[in-house]
Amino acid sequence: MKKYVMALDQGTTSCRAILFDKDSKIVGVAQKEFTQIYPKAGWVEHNPDEIWSTQYGVIAELIAKTDIKVDEIASIGITNQRETTVVWDKNTGKPVYNAIVWQCRRTTDICDDLKAKGYEDMVREKTGLVVDAYFSGTKVKWILDNVEGARAKAEKGELLFGTTDTWLIWKLTGGRVHVTDYSNASRTMMFNIRELFWDKELLKMLDVPQEMLPEVHNSSEVYGNTDAGVFLGYEIPIAGIAGDQQAALFGQACYEPGDAKNTYGTGCFMLMNTGSKIHTSKHGLLTTIAWGIDGKVEYALEGSIFIAGAAIQWLRDGMKLIDGAADSEYYAKKVKDTDGVYFVPAFVGLGAPYWDMRARGAIFGLTRGTTKYHIIRAALDSLAYQTKDVLGSMESDSGISLKSLRVDGGAVANDLLMQFQADILGTRVDRPEIIETTALGAAYLAGLAVGFWTSKEELANRWLLNRRFEPEMDEEKRAKLYKGWLKAVDRTKDWDDD
Ligand SMILES: Nc1ncnc2c1ncn2[C@@H]1O[C@H](COP(=O)(O)OP(=O)(O)O)[C@@H](O)[C@H]1O
Ligand SMILES: O=P(O)(O)OC[C@H](O)CO
């Protein structure tokens, strides 16, 4: 009897394995952080072998601590940090270079060159994206151009590319299956989101051989079984894939056009379902594929914020101001506000709606009265201000004024942040019972594919409110605070001219 679906959430800072039962309840979670590699200012890498060993480790830990039988798992769903680029040797299975992470800025010059050559409109039209170092395409090009022998091997069909979903599925199936789904493909800057194929014009622009790209599939279907030799002796269907932000949209049951969610993890990502319609943003948002199910693709508008919870991690690891992320709330509460301090965490440039690869982080408004509490509070506020930037664009682009915003991700545990978010938006903020919606979405996609669950409607009825945060701030104060934020952002722009 199949009792569970397992979701693998391969995030930017950690790997998780989570088991859900038929009632969508979490039966067990195992999670482990892995190493962040910063070889130079603005560069970010992960070791793909460590991603695999960490992911494998949490799978084994989850099975051991929940004491379930592996053959009770109906299917596995994979969700992943998007854009992060792995290139490996098809024959040996060994990566030719570290994974280049979505946050990495090393391809800024390649992007500037593409812009100078006039490719921006074509890229926007075909991919829904802006030309930015964020996306996989220029990262693949960098590896082929800079790793000795890589281009020659790629041209001979000996190298494979994948985002981390593709990498994990390759490993889980013992090197038999090389696939991704529409949502992940739409983040590569190589995939035509209108025609739904790897686009030859884009591949030529980036000089990437098509042979190295994975097959693109629905987000909910059986792609293959785990290799028994790899997966604890069992062949379990891998039946769902979605980029983590699209998976969160699915897990939040945002199934109707106009439904939106914001996920507060390493970065912050607001997505609004636009159904079968492709909205082209006039305000700095991306158009992206939400998911493909039964050959039908649905789209979303997205505001991508690069640094959100990562600013809190920086307070912990870089500044040693706090011992753990949750302490940020305790310290921030020690002051009534930031006393005029603004923290713009543009550590890796600015994403939506500004798209400035050369912006860098800064703290403004410091006085002799500034304490660490003000800085911690300003860091938390920056998540809310960045979200306001993006929500403004989303409302202008879609013509929809959101009555409430569904939120999820690690940082929404912070009540102070959620209240400030409602205050600064002037919009209700709804936190669901399950904030692991990314994993839940991946589980739903995998469960639907094997008949463990029957319909999206069934799943939508399971969404439960944990707490609603109502806006309490008056309009004048909101406007004054936000004006200060916009001034601060403006001063971080175009900073890095190296
Ligand atoms: N109580 C909290 N207050 C503020 N930030 C938090 C809190 N708990 C976790 N975070 C932040 O949330 C992020 C972790 O969320 P998660 O959804 O696990 O992210 P990801 O999937 O990107 O790794 C970290 O960056 C962490 O700093
Ligand atoms: O790992 P997360 O949750 O910060 O998400 C990363 C995004 O997918 C990057 O586009």
Largest sheet: 7 strands, mixed
Q: Please state how the strands of the largest beta sheet are arranged side by side.
A: 17-18-16-15-21-22-23
CATH topology name of the domain at 4-245, in short, is: Nucleotidyltransferase, domain 5
What is the terminal separation in angstroms? 60 Å
The CATH superfamily of the domain at 4-245 is: ATPase, nucleotide binding domain
Computed over alpha carbons, the radius of gyration is 22 Å
What is the residue-averaged pLDDT?
Answer: 95
Gross morphology? globular
Helix count? 16
Global structural class: alpha+beta
Function: Key enzyme in the regulation of glycerol uptake and metabolism. Catalyzes the phosphorylation of glycerol to yield sn-glycerol 3-phosphate.
EC number: 2.7.1.30
GO cellular component, one term: cytosol
Domain Carbohydrate kinase FGGY C-terminal: 261-449
